[in-house]
Structures are given as C-alpha cells and as structure tokens.
Automatic annotation (TrEMBL):
The keyword Transmembrane does not apply. Residues 208-239 form the C4-type zinc ribbon domain. This is C4-type zinc ribbon domain-containing protein. Keywords: Coiled coil. Pfam families: Zn_ribbon_9 (PF02591). InterPro entries: Oxidative_Scav/Glycosyltrans, Zf-RING_7. Residues 40-178 form a coiled coil.
C-alpha cells in the first residue's frame, strides 16, 4: 500500500509534462529573439573593429606627418649647409679645397632631392590613408546606425519578455525539484536529442506527438492507464495520454496568463 510520501506514476507524468510545457514556453520566448542577440554581438564586434582601424589609421597619419616634418627639417639643414659651403668657397686656398666643398654642396643637393621625393611619397600615403579613413568612417557610421536599430529592437523584445522568461526559469527549477533526479536527467537528455526540445509529448491520433509512427492500441491503453512511464520506441520521447495533456495544458495556460 502506497504511503503519503510516495509519488504515483501519474503524478510523475503530470510533473514531467508541466515541466515540458514551461520549458517549451521558455523556448518560444527565446525563439522570438531568434538570432538577434548574436546579430547584435556580431555588429558590436564589427563596429569595434572599424573603430580600432580608424584609430590605427589616424596614428599612421600622425607618424607620416612627423616624417614629413623631419624631412623638411633636413631640407632646411641642407640649405643652411649649402650656404655655408658656398661662403667658404670664397675663401679657399686651392682647387682641392674648392672641389671638396663643391662635392659637399652636391651631396646636400642630393639630400634635398631625396627628402623632397620622400615628402611627395609621404603625401601620397596621406592622401590614400585619408581616402581609406573617409570610406571607413562612412561604413562605421552606417554599421553603428544599424547596430543601434538592432539593439533597440532587441531591447524592446527583452523588455517585453525578460520578466516572464526569468519567472518561467524559476518555475522550471521549482518543478524540476519535485521530480526525482533520474527522471529529470532522462528528460533533459531526451530534450537535447529531439527536435524542438519536446521530451514529453501527448499521443495524437494514435501516434506520438510530432511523429508519423503509429502506437499499437495495447501500448496506447498502457499509456492511458498511467501506471508506468512509457517512451516512444522511435524517438525516445516520454508519452502521455491526450486527456492528461489537455488537463495540464489548461492548468499551465492559466499559470502563463498570470506570469505575463
């Protein structure tokens, strides 16, 4: 004879089906969000990446501007040296000294030419980098705007569903606690392995819910008897009879209505 502390198979089936209904409702809420959280995350990474690129490009510009300043200083120094050498040529004592100073002047002229060539190249680099910066800024602004739109969309969905989801998660944990760990473990394993996360389903038109495989009449009678836990031999899902499912759905619909 069963004691008051013992839980009947029917009670276990009801608790499992209630847990399934709660978890399915959580799944529905998360499906509403769909890929939006991941999309927002990807956009955040993309925008952050472009921002880093802009920072690097601007740093590169500063480096190039410093190089141009260095080359301009080199030109000024070379011009000063040329004037100095030219003045010294007026006071040389022989041709050897004159020629030596001429070579120094030629060398400084070459240094100026090289520096001017470098400056021209650096300015071409600046022009190219400025073009890339403008393109990146335009892309950055466009993706930032898109991110804001998607973030607002996600925030709105979260605002509508987060409270209900958190309450349902607590309800799911509460229902789990009323079911023996062995069954919870089996339920979670089945839920992970089957389509739509449905681990507990009702018999519908003589077949397992969501399945085309017919359940023999004898097995259907055993399911309706609620004396033992029976699984679908094809999908592994735990099966409950339609009447039990209807009763629990009505009960849980009332609970979901209060949670909204």
């Amino acid at each position: 004879m069963a004691t008051k502390t013992e839980v009947t198979v029917e009670e276990k089936l009801r608790a499992l089906y209630d847990l399934q209904l709660i978890d399915s409702r959580i799944d529905e809420i998360r499906n509403v969000r769909g890929e939006l959280p991941l999309e927002v995350e990807d956009l955040e990474d993309e925008v952050a990446g472009m921002n880093t690129r802009l920072e690097k490009l601007n740093t590169d510009l500063e480096v190039i501007e410093d190089l141009i300043k260095e080359k301009k200083n080199s030109i000024e120094e070379a011009n000063a040296l040329m004037k100095k050498y030219a003045a010294q040529q007026d006071h040389v004592r022989n041709n050897r000294e004159y020629n030596s100073l001429s070579k120094e002047i030629e060398y400084q002229e070459l240094e100026i030419q090289l520096a001017e060539k470098n400056i021209k190249e650096y300015r071409a680099q600046i022009e190219q980098k400025n073009q890339v910066i403008e393109e990146t800024k335009a892309r950055f602004n466009e993706r930032s705007e898109h991110l804001k739109h998607k973030q607002d969309e996600l925030d709105e969905i979260l605002k509508e569903t987060e409270k209900e989801e958190q309450t349902l998660i607590k309800e799911s944990e509460k229902f789990e606690a009323t079911i023996e760990p062995r069954l919870v473990k089996a339920y979670k394993r089945i839920r992970t392995n089957v389509k739509n996360g449905l681990a507990v389903v009702a018999v519908e038109r003589g077949a397992s819910g969501g399945s085309f495989f017919t359940i023999p009449p004898q097995v259907q009678m055993e399911i309706a008897g609620r004396k033992k836990i029976i699984t679908d031999e094809h999908s592994g899902r735990i099966l409950v009879d339609p009447d039990l499912a209807k009763e629990e759905r009505e009960k849980m619909d009332e609970l979901f209505g209060k949670l909204k």
